[in-house]
Amino acid sequence: MRIAELWRYPVKSVAGEPLESADLRRDGIFGDRVVRVEDERGRIVTSRTRPRLLGHRATLGPDGEPLVDGRPWRSAEVTRDVEAAAGRGARLVRYDGVERFDVLPLLIATDGALAVFGRDRRRLRPNIVIAGVDGLAERGWEGRVIRAGAARIGIDSLRARCVMTTFDPDTLAQDPGVLRDIQSTFGGRLALNAYVIEEGPVALGDPVTLLNRED
């Protein structure tokens, strides 16, 4: 097995960026989901209810600050775009506490399960895609540990999927059948919630080994 893809999402609920390498820290990939959308009352807004946010792309600048469509996230232009996508008064707010993740800091997908899924893997918003996995073998990984590059990652549970999977990453067109298929084929759970046990760098092509928790 090997690392086939790495993804970071500097702004929560906005499209992310593919990486060639990443620094895995206790709170996941460095720079992941460090900015979020809040409404005028300070409530978190996501693409579950405001899918137009997915039409914008976030990257991490060389200074560690997110860019949205290539522009500084604090710029007036980005603020206008966020309001247009998420409603009047919506704004971007930096928050890098561990609570910024819906479940755990990492989401891992495997090529075997993605082949069964049969749709664009970006719908699942993984951080790491592992190649060389047979079919739905990932469904037996709960409670196991993987070594990937210089890092060790704990596998917690299968991820319960939501309406975000129904939006096309490019056109934003909605297909409710995607979530129905996830329910019927995968019991509503697809890809793996994970956390970092030992920090370290990872890169495309790094070998991945499945271990028992005590290894």
Summarize, please.
By secondary structure, this protein is mainly beta. The protein has three helices and 17 strands. The chain folds into two domains: 2-6 and 17-27 and 101-211, M1 Pyruvate Kinase, Domain 3 (Beta Barrel), CATH 2.40.33; 29-100, no CATH class.
Task: Draw up the topology in text.
Elements: E1 2-8, E2 17-19, E3 21-25, E4 28-29, E5 35-38, E6 44-45, E7 58-60, E8 66-68, E9 71-72, H1 76-86, E10 91-94, E11 106-110, H2 111-117, E12 128-131, E13 145-148, E14 151-160, H3 177-186, E15 189-198, E16 200-203, E17 208-211
How would you portray this structure in words?
It is a single chain. The chain has helices spanning 76-86, 111-117, 177-186, and strands at 2-8, 17-19, 21-25, 28-29, 35-38, 44-45, 58-60, 66-68, 71-72, 91-94, 106-110, 128-131, 145-148, 151-160, 189-198, 200-203, 208-211. It is 13% helix and 35% strand. The strands form four sheets. The protein has an eight-stranded mixed β-sheet. It has a three-stranded antiparallel β-sheet with strand order 4-3-16, with no helix packed on it. It has a three-stranded antiparallel β-sheet with strand order 6-5-10. It is globular and about 50 Å long. The mean pLDDT is 96. It has three helices and 17 strands. With 215 residues, it is mainly beta. It has two domains: 2-6 and 17-27 and 101-211, M1 Pyruvate Kinase, Domain 3 (Beta Barrel), CATH 2.40.33; 29-100, no CATH class. The two termini are 18 Å apart.
